[in-house]
Design goal:
The chain is mainly α. The chain folds into 4 domains: about 220 residues; about 120 residues, no CATH class; about 170 residues, no CATH class; about 60 residues, no CATH class. Helices cover about 55% and strands about 0% of the residues. The strands form 3 sheets. Strands 1-5 form a two-stranded antiparallel sheet. A two-stranded antiparallel sheet has the order 2-3. Helix 8 packs antiparallel against helix 9 and helix 18 runs antiparallel to helix 19. The two termini are about 40 Å apart. The N terminus is likely disordered.
Length: about 750
Amino acid sequence: MTRLRRLIAIFLVVIFINGTTVLACGPFTLEAVFVYTVHPDYPLEKFAAGRIGVVQPSYARSYLYTAYRYMSGLSFTPDEQKALVELWKDRLDFRGEDPSGWSKVWLEARKKVAGVQDRGEIDVHRSREKPNEYEYYVNCNKDSFETAAATLNQRIAKYGADSPAMQNWVAAQDAVFSNCTSGKSIPDATLPAPDAVLQADRAYQIAAAYFYAADFDEATKSFTAIAEDPASPWKQTASYLVARTLIRKASLGAPEQKQESLRAAESQLAKILGDKSQLRFHRTAKGLANLVRLRLHPEERLRELGQVLLANYQNNNLKQDLWDYTTLMDQRPGRDQSKPIVSTNNDDLTDWIDTFQSPYNTTFDHSFERWQTKRTDPWLIATLSVADGKHAKAPELIAQALNVKPAAAAFASARFHAVRLLMESGKNDEARTLVDQLLKNNRDQFDTSTLNLLASKRMLLATSFPDFLVYTVRNPATLSWNDDGREIPVDDDEIEAEMKALKDAPRFDYDAGIALNQQIPLTILKQAATQKHLVVSLRRDVAQAVWLRAVILGDTQTADELVPVLRELVPELSPLLNDYVSATTPQAKKFSAIYAWLRFPGLEPVVDIGVGRRTPLNQQDSYRDNWWCGNAFYLPEEEKENELETDGPPSFTARATSPLLFLSAAEQATAKREWSTLGQLGAAPNYIAQQVIQWANRTPNDERLPEALHLAVKSTRYGCTDKDSGRWSKAAFDVLHRKYPNTRWAKMTPYWFKE
């Protein structure tokens, strides 16, 4: 239960980091990330050192701040770079100190007192009051246990470990810590014998008990009384804890008293910071004062931090300042409204981040005006990011982008957008020349995401099919489970050998997969399988896709031509291909191919995007990626558009597609027609069942039919189905049991399956 509470508490902190939280349910599949959009390429140390690549508006704001500084000609010291990376990893990895061992120091110290019984680990998480009782927060901090242990050791030295006074002291402190997780246990104010030191300790224990029991009014009253007692050794500590209690009350108490409590805390902290006798509390008091200011005066504090973060001196508090700044950015009014935020801050950083992250085209005018006024690289990149190639200002912006020097932090972003705008303005030859120069002369200074973005543009600029194929092959920036949208790379220490082999294998990104699957006709696509322009793994994928697609579309000539290639690339399929070749009629060939498809559930008439199916072609996949999940490719157009829309800032990836320059109008029309025909098939198991049933009616004595019917039924259970799949499952089941009731395949098929 303790671990669960800790995870919930961590989750409650995390949901405020970037303003949104993405949750998903398993099973999770390995994903190839070609272009990072949540954060820069790993290792993050390179970004912290100034290798910023193409800056994405969708990056979390702490990365945008870093990019802004570098593009402005500022930099970070090694210590500041380390602080940046620590902040990023804390957020991405949900890192935080594990509190499970905090109480150990106290538990060990109390063993020194004679007659004290052992007690178990103390859970430091406490549930909030209703209606938030399923939310937990860290109630007892590490320093609480350390202070208790240190004080106990001092008192033992004075009174002795076997004295009744120490037994009573430990019992009272145990009562204090019992409030860490629940309840309200307040130590008795009465002592066995009068003693000024122990009486002061007891007053402090009582105040702490009220604090941990979430009775903040009584805690404030008790700590205040101690702070006003000149004889108490806890006087200065209590003064500081008055402020902490008021802040805790503001966080966990009634919403209507929040501002009042924060103002009282602000006043108390000002007293401490103005009192030289409390110098030992000044550092922590200053941190609390910044926290109060952040909550009480958010806009003012945001402006302050925007200026502090751009100051040209080493910031030893950079991690906390940036954390506070981005938290304030996330929590501003209007972040969740469906309109742009108009920055009310005077600092350039906040204005730039707001503008750069806005998903609205209306930001162009503001961005362009700011760039004209300031003539800085951050505003040039912000303007380029929202510019359209057909805009009247596009030529001027392209020229300015080309003036950015290779050594500048903005170079990768400027050149990428120059290519994009040239393409949008119809200057494809200039765009192609520019990309080729960049990939030849500047490749070493680009991260993988930038290289893949440039390759995606160069692919669309190809003038021939072989030229096109060169730029379809890309190495992912990383492999990630990405179940929560954080794009965290897989950990080499936690993955099996098979997965390690996947890491450096080239693959098809989204745009390449869509082009190969939807935009290129079979007559051209087959060249990718027969000519060795692709690595073997990708050529194998294309070969099986072209062969099966040709079968489905009735293009027997293309299917026949691909048989020798398939034998070479998928040798385990050879016996079934022999049956296909020996078939004497188009119908017999088609059934032989359908039978091979049933035996090899990994075959599909499309190439995989990203990692794709990892299960061998002749084995059934555990997660139903069998016999082609074709429905995923056939969303209505408006549904496809909505699928790519997000509420957050836009990002530049290879998801956008456009007509391929090397295809004629007739070839484009043929590809569209072929793809449409595939789309009309519906769910693959339905189509397969229909084909097998038709062959059973035509040629009932084919010895392969009982097994084919069994597998057809099986495909409606372990393949991707739709509302009609149950009907076809039953139809195949009925034919199997009616025509072949005594076969082992009928006995292996006791059920048919609904959707």
